[in-house]
Amino acid sequence: MGMSITEKILARGAGRRSVSAGQTVWVEVDLLMTHDVCGPGTIGIFEKQFGADAKVWDPDKVLIIPDHYIFTADAKCHRNIDLLRDFVRRQGLTRYYDPEFVHAGAGMPTPYADPTQTSYLGVCHAAMLAEGFDRPGQIILGTDSHTCTAGAVGAFATGIGNTDAGFVLGTGKLWLRVPEGMRFRFEGAMPDYLMAKDLILTAIADVGFDGATYRAMEFCGSTVEGLGVEERSVLCNMAIEAGGKNGVVAIDDQTVAYVQARTDAPFEILASDADAWYVYDQTFDTRRIEPVVARPHTPANKALAREVDEPIDRAYLGSCTGGKLTDMQAAARVLKGRSVAVETFVVPATTRVDAQLDRETVDGTSLRQIFLDAGCQVGPASCAACLGGPADTFGRANAAINVISATNRNFPGRMGSKDAGVYLASPLTVAASALTGRITDPRDVLQ
């Protein structure tokens, strides 16, 4: 029996010819990422177990990106970032990115001369992908459940806890169980009113919020092959919302071109064997899929947008699944020449996307101007309200309001108040709903 791409990556990391689902193996880690939420805890465990003066196993394989609370006046959030900066200085790490940090020594990258020319500053998952840190065939671990985003370029990527991350900091290794595989085929041309968010919400609803627990969700088919890497990243990012261990898309010419445009570092091209075994194998006809939303309070609570007659109080376009350039372009297509009916926030995923709001246009008008003319508020590149957070990150919803959001999770309290209802949707559906003040199928407003 053959192996899936996930099994092949783990076999390579374990130094074995083959592995199979259910085996537990020691693997060599290619990249460890942490950020301002979990970084301090990870550092504390590392220094407790390995010593206050211990050095990380490989400084070139450690990436730290403060992104959740970087643009806030909250003193406790600043303390987290101060702890990261101190660790970076003591370790001599060069892969650390925040807009105010000045490295004590040489070797620091130079995006800070013009932050708008880099994606280093912003949501860690979007930045890792956009700057070429994520590469095919790698084993990428991060202290964030949505680290699985990197599967968009054919990597094995998954979130881990602070304890595991502290161990990886010291050893570069981790004990992993090989997950069973699930294959999701999407076939057919993608209609212009659908986005990857509609596909993944459909898949999650099909298996349930725990239906992929500790399994590898592999996405394929002609529809997926036609998606850009940014859209593929949405599929992989939300694998965790079905309990998945990782999400992954096959490596193709588009993958290779995307990665090689961002890095000259080597990578390995792997592919699932024709006779690889999957515990679940389902084909979806994309032409039969309609715009959907996930009602509160789980991403599996799917409903057709055209059948949800619910008023909304706020619309939110941002995060690693909704703040990329493709998301901004999609929303601008809906909002151009119109005005929003509810408070609407637009938060680019990275500083590069923020700059592209001024350079990219629709019929001669910049994306930023389209959003401003429509009455949207545009915030700085960060995670902002996706994880709630301080009020000055748009994060505190202090009432039982309804929010339609291009983010990836809608549990109670996820974006602020536990009494708020968060509806997940594609950027197209978010923008359409912002115009009407109700959950709206984008087909109703697209020109």
Walkthrough of the structure:
It is a single chain. The protein is α/β, with parallel strands linked by helices. The protein folds into two domains: 269 residues, Aconitase, domain 3, CATH 3.30.499.10; 149 residues, Aconitase, domain 3. 29% of the residues lie in helices and 17% in strands. Strands 17-14-13-18-19 form a five-stranded parallel beta sheet, covered by helices on one side. Strands 3-2-4-5 form a four-stranded parallel beta sheet, covered by helices on one side. A four-stranded parallel beta sheet has the order 9-8-7-10. A hairpin with a 2-residue loop joins β15 and β16. The longest helix is centred in the first third of the chain and has 17 residues.
Summarize the amount of helix as a percent range.
Answer: 25-40%
Total beta strands = 19
Percent of residues in beta strands = 15-25%
Structural domain count: 2
What's this model, at a glance?
By secondary structure, the protein is of the alpha/beta class. The protein has helices spanning 5-14, 39-50, 75-91, 124-130, 162-171, 196-207, 222-226, 229-237, 253-260, 325-335, 351-359, 367-374, 427-436; strands spanning 24-28, 31-34, 62-64, 139-142, 156-159, 173-177, 180-187, 215-220, 246-249, 280-285, 292-294, 302-304, 314-317, 343-346, 361-362, 365-366, 377-378, 402-405, 421-424.
List the helices and strands and how they pair.
Elements: H1 5-14, E1 24-28, E2 31-34, H2 39-50, E3 62-64, H3 75-91, H4 124-130, E4 139-142, E5 156-159, H5 162-171, E6 173-177, E7 180-187, H6 196-207, E8 215-220, H7 222-226, H8 229-237, E9 246-249, H9 253-260, E10 280-285, E11 292-294, E12 302-304, E13 314-317, H10 325-335, E14 343-346, H11 351-359, E15 361-362, E16 365-366, H12 367-374, E17 377-378, E18 402-405, E19 421-424, H13 427-436
Parallel strand pairs: 2-3, 2-4, 4-5, 7-8, 7-10, 8-9, 13-14, 13-18, 14-17, 18-19
Antiparallel strand pairs: 1-6, 11-12, 15-16
Helix pairs in contact: 2-5, 6-8, 10-12, 10-13
